[in-house]
Design brief:
The complex is a heterodimer of chains A (475) and B (497).
Chain A (H helix, E strand, L loop, with lengths): L2 H6 L1 H19 L3 H25 L2 E3 L3 E3 L1 H25 L8 H18 L3 H19 L6 H32 L4 H9 L4 H19 L7 H8 L2 H25 L6 H22 L5 H22 L2 H28 L15 H4 L1 H15 L5 H15 L3 H26 L13 H19 L2 H11 L4
Antiparallel strand pairs in A: 1-2
Chain B lengths: L1 H19 L6 H24 L13 E8 L4 E7 L1 H20 L8 H20 L3 H10 L1 H11 L4 H34 L6 H4 L6 H18 L8 H8 L2 H26 L1 H28 L3 H22 L2 H32 L15 H15 L5 H16 L1 H25 L15 H19 L2 H22 L2
Antiparallel strand pairs in B: 1-2
Helix pairs in contact in B: 1-2, 1-4, 2-3, 2-4, 3-4, 3-11, 3-14, 3-18, 3-19, 4-5, 4-6, 4-11, 5-7, 6-7, 7-9, 7-10, 9-11, 9-12, 10-11, 10-13, 11-12, 11-13, 11-14, 11-19, 12-13, 12-17, 13-14, 13-16, 13-17, 14-15, 14-16, 14-18, 14-19, 15-17, 16-17, 16-18
The chains are: A mainly alpha (475), B mainly alpha (497).
């Protein structure tokens, strides 16, 4: 590895070094404030080095990693999201956990994993990134181990994630046995000579299982509502955004670089997954009374929408997917941020009843939550609206009418459960329950997210331009 | 620039009203009143300023326009433009906005500031819909105007407000999304044939489409507008939303939101897809007539006053649909006239019913009767607007419906005959309303306060404007005539490729 190669992976190296720095800092002085501050500084440093890395991009660093503008864009997104999660975690864990400091160590490992996924160009990095992302999450989900729900969720995630990872490994092994390479770039060339369907088809299906689990798309979604409900709100926000975003970045790159995307069975499989996710996510959410579970099902549906754009392929599709992910990141972070603020110290606020009349007690908080829910529903002035517009446009540009119509109809169904929460927020004016206390850190994070949400919703031009440039390499 | 101001004043006034609501319950009302008055004055000055040259405007025929690039990557523009048709719709919007602020003066006591924020913002959304000539911007405004309306119903509505608000939202959102798909299909087909990505209305006019594509895309637009209009059988959200909304909400729903549907048909459906629209016209005309009769029959069967008035809207908007799809000059003039007059007369009826509910705390007609003896002024006003609604000559509604019938007679005799029966039905429900509520003996011993000066002002203004529209509608016809000519020319141009 040369010097420029080292510069290219500088952001990853900082993310990788931070857990060590934090552990040393914790051993010297156990202070929540200091740890959180160091984490923010580390993320800021990683953010700063993105430009240095961009100057030498695109660059293949060993056969394992490719640092191009696409990878850097997603790394930047992951860093920013982690930044917000740190702010939310600080507010959340301050009064809830006696030793909250180690959360940040785990958080950095997971963020590193997601960034590695975004830059992976080899099956080995895919697997490494996946495990780096998954293993800390087991602990983060069950971090409040004195309560039953988080531990149950953590164990559930552990079992299923480990199982799906082994599916993925098996699939990779099959591909390797057939094509003799594990580099994405060379898979395409190796496959050009004709594929042995008997081996490749199962291999691809197994890989899809592994990826599908992380994305929580139907039929690999079973864990989602339980884990979202059990996990502490900031951790749920992390799972919903960074974990899925990193995986989707990989999915795009993997299927575009290897040329598997044009492979008929793949299209059929993803078509079915997309339709099933949109339908199941939206319909099952109708039956829920728990806000965290509603958000879980809603995220399943949103991944289904993303797959519609993924299936559309082409330059518009990569822009659409990336833009939608940005909007989705902001929205989910904001929504779970509000959940974290509303929650009493005992258990996370799940039941719809706990949100009743929030507007009359905490107008700003309720307005923020409303904005987030409207963004999820795709109402104008929010980033979610532009996101949905671009996804529909991507589908329409390739005449995927069936998918587009299903998207439209299911998202209209989805409106119902978003509006149910909104109705609860604004119902009944004379409530006696005390107003939740909003920590200033969380307040600042939420206000910034809301401003971003609306700014992108009204002036999406610059962001679209940046995404265009970043995803151009992918084609 | 003045077009931006029209919207910005409403948005700014809304924020100001919300802020003022923290200190006082009266300040937001005055701020809202000042805001709509300012916009009304601006609108009047626009109208007066253009009165001399309204049919002389060269080129594309916009009296005023603003065109900014918004999202360059997709060829999206922030393009507002005004012609005679949208000018009249704006005047109606500001007028009814003024009335709804007055109508909610005493009715709304809960978080007054936030109420007026929503009220002014829904007006801003409606204004943007009437002005947008970039299809993306149009869709943006179309969806955006739902949100404040949803809050108006969901927070300040009556007993079943949650149900009504959600139903309203989902109906319009689903049909709106289908319109988005249609807009995008048109956008990509336009690109396929010209190589240009654009949402601009004028560029999209005359996009060559295969007949099959044209009919599907046209249906996407038609569906969204038909739900708003509302056209039978897509009307089922309307009675609930109108009934459960607070008075100001009902006035805006009936007076303005329904008109956006009709406006969309006039502005987009027929000019963009003339061939498909012509092919589809018999279906639309039939559904329009069914709406006229069905709405009238159901209105006759209601016991809830607000529901009754709501169903009359289904009936009257059926005339508009017939007028639009008969597509000759008389029928079109009639359709626009009906849009304006229905806005005023139904708005007035909702204001009166709201005033009545404020006093009696019920909307059940069975619990009323003989109210004339205790509230003569309110009763007289109700009689006046019921007569307007049934189409008494001399009042605006008559002019509109009569012209529609004349135009329909030229186009399709049978449609005209059945529509005329609808006018007859209107007599039944309007007179039943008056007879049951105001005439007869005051069995329940109601003793109520008559119209306050504030209410008299609102009702009086509406009555005068209806009389004006009925007796001397020429200025109005002159204002929208050039716009309609251009729409007809656009429609005719592409009909013969």
């Amino acid at each position: 590895m040369t010097g420029t190669g080292a510069i290219a992976i500088l952001p990853l190296m900082i993310l990788g070094a931070m857990p060590v720095v934090l552990m040393i800092a914790i051993s010297i002085r156990r202070s929540h404030r200091l740890t959180a501050f160091l984490s923010l500084a580390g993320l800021a440093a990683a953010w700063r080095t993105l430009w240095a890395a961009a100057a030498v991009a695109p660059r293949q660093v060993t056969p394992l990693l490719i640092i191009d503008r696409y990878a850097l864009f997603y790394t930047g997104l992951i860093v920013l999201a982690t930044f917000v999660v740190v702010l939310l975690s600080y507010a959340y864990f301050e009064h809830r956990s006696r030793h909250p400091e180690e959360v940040y160590v785990l958080l950095f490992v997971a963020a590193l994993g997601a960034s590695v996924l975004a830059s992976a160009s080899h099956f080995a990095t895919l697997f490494l990134g996946l495990e780096l992302l998954s293993v800390p999450l087991y602990a983060m989900i069950a971090y409040r181990q004195q309560r039953k729900l988080p531990v149950e969720a953590g164990v559930k995630y552990l079992v299923l994630a480990a199982a799906s990872a082994s599916f993925l490994l098996f699939g990779m092994a099959l591909v390797y046995s057939e094509l003799g390479t594990m580099e994405f770039g060379r898979l395409a060339a190796a496959a050009a000579g004709g594929l042995n369907e008997v081996v490749v088809l199962p291999a691809v299906v197994l890989i899809v299982v592994g990826i599908g689990f992380k994305l929580a798309v139907v039929p690999f979604h079973m864990w989602t509502p339980d884990v979202y409900e059990g996990a502490p709100a900031p951790v749920a926000a992390f799972i919903a955004t960074v974990s899925k975003g990193g995986m989707f970045a990989l999915l795009l790159r993997y299927f575009y670089r290897t040329g598997f995307r044009g492979y008929e069975p793949i299209i059929a499989i993803f078509f079915i997954i997309a339709v099933a996710s949109m339908l199941a996510g939206n319909l099952l959410a109708l039956l829920q009374n728990n806000v965290k579970r509603i958000l879980a099902y809603s995220s399943i549906a949103h991944l289904g929408y993303l797959l519609v754009a993924f299936l559309a392929a082409g330059a518009l599709a990569t822009t659409a997917v990336t833009f939608y992910l940005v909007a989705y990141f902001i929205t989910m972070l904001g929504a779970f941020g509000v959940v974290g603020v509303v929650s009493a110290p005992g258990a996370d606020a799940g039941d719809l009843a706990e949100y009743r009349g929030l507007f009359w007690r905490k107008p700003v908080l309720a307005a923020i939550f409303t904005a987030m829910l409207f963004s999820l529903a795709g109402i104008p002035l929010t980033a979610g609206f532009i996101g949905k517009y671009i996804v529909v446009a991507a589908g329409a540009s390739r005449s995927l009418w069936a998918l587009v119509v299903i998207l439209v109809v299911t998202s209209a169904i989805g409106l119902y459960y978003y509006l149910r929460i909104v109705v609860a927020l604004y119902s009944g004016s004379e409530e006696t329950s005390p107003a939740p206390h909003m920590a200033p850190v969380a307040g600042v994070a939420l206000v910034i997210l809301t401003i971003l949400l609306i700014a992108i919703g009204v002036f999406p031009g610059p962001l679209i331009g940046a995404i265009h440039a970043a995803t151009a390499a992918l084609g | 620039m003045i077009l931006i101001w029209l919207i910005a004043i409403l948005l700014g006034g809304g924020i100001l009203a919300a802020l003022a609501g923290r200190w006082s319950a009266t300040a937001p009302r005055w701020i809202a009143l000042a805001t709509v008055t300012a916009d009304f004055a601006l609108g009047l000055s626009l109208w007066a300023g253009n009165a001399g040259r309204i049919d002389l405007v060269p080129g594309n025929g916009w009296l005023e326009q603003v065109d900014w690039t918004w999202i360059p990557q997709f060829g999206i523009h922030f393009h507002l433009a005004l012609d005679g048709l949208s000018l009249l719709m704006l005047m109606l919007t500001f007028f009814l906005g003024f009335i709804s602020v007055l109508a909610s003066w005493r009715e709304i006591t809960k978080s007054v500031g936030f109420f007026h924020l929503n009220l002014l913002w829904v007006l801003a959304g409606v204004v943007s819909v009437f002005l947008a000539v970039d299809l993306f911007l149009f869709y943006f405004a179309w969806e955006l105007m739902l949100v404040p309306m949803y809050f108006l119903i969901a927070i300040w509505g009556h007993e079943r407000r949650t149900y009504a608000a959600i139903k309203f939202f989902i109906f319009t959102q689903l049909s709106g999304l289908l319109m988005l798909v249609a807009i995008l299909a048109l956008y990509f087909l336009h690109h396929a044939s010209t190589g240009v990505y654009t949402f601009q209305y004028e560029d999209l006019l005359g996009t060559p489409l295969s007949p099959a594509a044209a009919i599907w895309i046209m249906l996407g637009f038609f569906g969204a507008f038909a739900v708003k209009l509302p056209m039978f059988p897509l009307h089922s959200w309307l009675p609930d939303a109108h009934t459960e909304a607070p008075t100001a909400g009902s006035i805006i729903l009936a007076g303005l939101l329904l008109k956006t549907g009709a406006y969309g048909m006039l502005r987009f459906v027929v000019p963009l897809f003339p061939g498909a629209a012509r092919e589809f016209a018999p279906v639309a005309l039939t559904l329009g007539v069914i709406g006229i009769l069905y709405g009238a029959v159901l209105a006759f069967g209601q016991t809830d006053l607000k529901r009754l008035v709501a169903y009359t809207s289904v009936s009257h908007l059926g005339f508009v649909l017939v007028g639009i799809f008969a597509w000759n000059q008389l029928a079109l003039q009639g359709a626009v006239m009906t849009m304006l007059c229905h806005g005023i007369s139904t708005g007035a009826l909702f204001a009166l019913v709201g005033a009545l509910q404020e006093r009696t705390h019920t909307r059940e007609m069975d619990r009323m009767g003989g109210l004339w003896s205790t509230i003569p002024r309110l009763s007289g006003a109700a009689l006046f607007f019921s007569l307007a609604s049934l189409g008494l000559p001399g009042l605006g509604d008559f002019v509109g419906e009569f012209l529609v019938l004349l135009g329909a007679w030229e186009a399709h005799r049978i449609i005209a005959i059945f529509s005329t029966i609808g006018v007859l039905f209107a007599t039944f429900y309007a007179l039943r309303l008056v007879a049951q509520v105001f005439h007869g003996e005051n069995r329940h011993g109601w003793r109520l306060a008559d119209l306050a000066p504030r209410e008299q002002l609102a009702i009086g203004l509406m009555a005068v404007s209806l009389l004006w529209l009925g007796l001397y509608p020429r200025p109005v016809f002159r204002t929208f005539a050039p716009a309609m000519h251009r729409l007809q020319a656009a429609a005719a141009r592409e009909a013969t490729p």
